[in-house]
Amino acid sequence: MPKNSKAVKRELDDDVTESVRDLLSNEDTCDDSFKKSSLIVGGSGGAGEGKDLNGDMDVEDGGSDAEDDAARPAWNSKLQYILAQVGFSVGLGNVWRFPYLCQKNGGGAYLVPYLILLIVIGIPLFFLELSVGQRIRRGSIGVWNYISPRLGGIGFASCVVCFFVALYYNVIIGWSLFYFSQSFQQPLPWHECDHRNSTPDVVPECEKSSATTYYWYREALNISDSISESGGLNWRMTICLLAAWSMVCLAMIKGIQSSGKVMYFSSLFPYVVLICFLVRALLLKGSVDGIRHMFTPKLEIMLEAKVWREAATQVFFALGLGFGGVIAFSSYNKRDNNCHFDAVLVSFINFFTSVLATLVVFAVLGFKANIMNGKCVALNTKKIVGLLGNEISRDLIPHHINFSATVSAEDYQKMTVLIREVMEKDYQLLGLGSCSIEEELNKAVQGTGLAFIAFTEAMTHFPASPFWSVMFFLMLVNLGLGSMFGTIEGIITPLVDTFKVRKEFLTVGVCLLAFFIGLLFVQRSGNYWVAMFDDYSATLPLLIVVILENVAVAWVYGTDKFFEDLKDMLGFTPFRFYYYMWKYVTPLLLILLLGSSVIQLGMTPPSYSAWIKDLASEKSLSYTPWGLAVCISLVVMAIMPVPVVFFLRYFNIIDENAGVVSTISYKKGCIIQEIARPEEEDDASLIHAKSPSPMPGNSIYRKQNGGVPDSTPNGRYGIGYLMADMPDMPESDL
């Protein structure tokens, strides 16, 4: 039997005795069979949280904060969260990029501009991303669409960049897995050059280069001579890539509930390996020479603009700014978490990890330089012995030098100095090498050249070299996985928040798609594609993304309001330092960095380093016209979502001012909720998601006589217990 509205009111009056807080806390215990419907309320409001780019309000996004907090996954502990952020920010670049920049840009003096820019650019932007993710509790798409709908494309651009980076980053993990699998041998397979057909003849390509270089380019990659020669799939690397994506998929399939547990190992194990390597390297001859070379400051280089530009770029990428992974991880935090402390802590952990890795790298390279220098001395000493009595007089040899024993590097230097002084111009004709440890250490290497050539060569001279090789490549795998978790989270979280798909299905789908596209990188020409994506798919797009993030918060939303939000969230007002950084200094520096990067790209035509088999050496080649088109397309595709969404919003092709939407849940014995849009009141906070009181005459709810309020004490929910002018409803609906 249908009931009239008076009967409904009377029944509700009798039943509603619990407080708002009790009702919210008991909402999950209600009957599972319920129906939600979205109702348009009161005119038009701004686009807010939960509103997608089509101007529609997703039902689940319209729910209350309490409902969202209950449904959204959370970190099991603060330590797990910190390890996740550290694992994401500390990656392969800390091991094979930072030491190279340190060596190239003035040694210990490089740490000064790096530390200054970390404080001026790195920490403020890292703090900004942590704050918006933690407060709005959405991925990158939801966060930036929520703060400024016209800048909603920032989140999509972040997802595109994350996907591009994930494509080639996991290939590097695959390479590390291959070397890891080959390390269980004594001696290591790259210990010496192969012989042809079991004869004493050495493979010419290996003889002209070195055993580790040959193994990397020919045995591991089987590389082609140019990017135009695909050469077909490298089946061993294809298997390794499949294994790498399987590991990522299994670790991420349950979101932070599964990846968070893996973080304890993937984030901590690299530190164990680095410390073990440092202790072992310090016990080897020549390690102190490497560390001394690294920390010897070259102050004149520090004044060059290029040094500051490269330091700013390294700070920017070291912290993973703009990828969306930082926002995604912080969105699973409690809203009162001290994210300022987290930002400072993770930033300095990242910095000290880079310094630790640099110590390890130069200690090992110092040992390697000592070995190489010893071989150089032995080889050139034989030349001198052969020239004695003919081109070289025996009187030029110091009496204490005994050629029947091993000649030290110091004695060799004394001999060559005397010979050079006497013979002068004829000295060059002798073909004697300088054999200097400094020259050996000045051979700057980075990236794959450091990890898969220089470092592997050094480890062949370690006692128990297979053990150290296993540890090193397992460390690289873990460093890569930690960064991959954050990168994939930067894709999955915003898509799940926006489109409400099952995280398990989306994770498997993304990993499968990325694997099949990633086959491009395991061709024989795959290394060249990795270099192309590394150079062009992330650098410029991420700079633009972070500039827009900074502008969206500091200028569109407002630094003053953002500070009020932070005070409410943290319980204290952040240092005024951040106000000036966000509003003036950081955007200006980022624009200068973007400009200098564009100028550098314009001055240096796109090229790549190719391995030429016949020459057994690298050669710089220019990209073909189609290669240039791909480079430009990577940049354009990554940044395209920003202008597209802006113009769609600006010209109202996607309605920016959709109606205010309320989500009403019809559950037996449960609460009925109205959520208003925050843009209806100028003083309302976007980040707080505070909503003003409903407009008189437009609200579908009214409060009960006796004073049950329309909203909870924090002003976030408009909750009606009695529905005015409620139509007759069937009994079964109540």
From TrEMBL:
Gene Ontology molecular function: metal ion binding; proline:sodium symporter activity
Binding-site list for Na(+): 87, 90, 94, 350, 479, 483
InterPro entries referenced in this protein's UniProt entry, alphabetically: Na/ntran_symport, Neutral_aa_SLC6, SNS_sf
Domain of life: Eukaryota
One GO BP annotation of this record: L-leucine transport
Keywords on record: Glycoprotein, Membrane, Metal-binding, Sodium, Symport, Transmembrane, Transmembrane helix, Transport
Acidic residues bias (residue ranges): 55-68
Localization per Swiss-Prot or TrEMBL: Membrane
Keyword tRNA processing: no
Disordered as annotated region, ranges: 38-69
Family (UniProt): Belongs to the sodium:neurotransmitter symporter (SNF) (TC 2.A.22) family.
Name assigned to this protein: Transporter
Record lineage: Eukaryota, Metazoa, Chordata, Craniata, Vertebrata
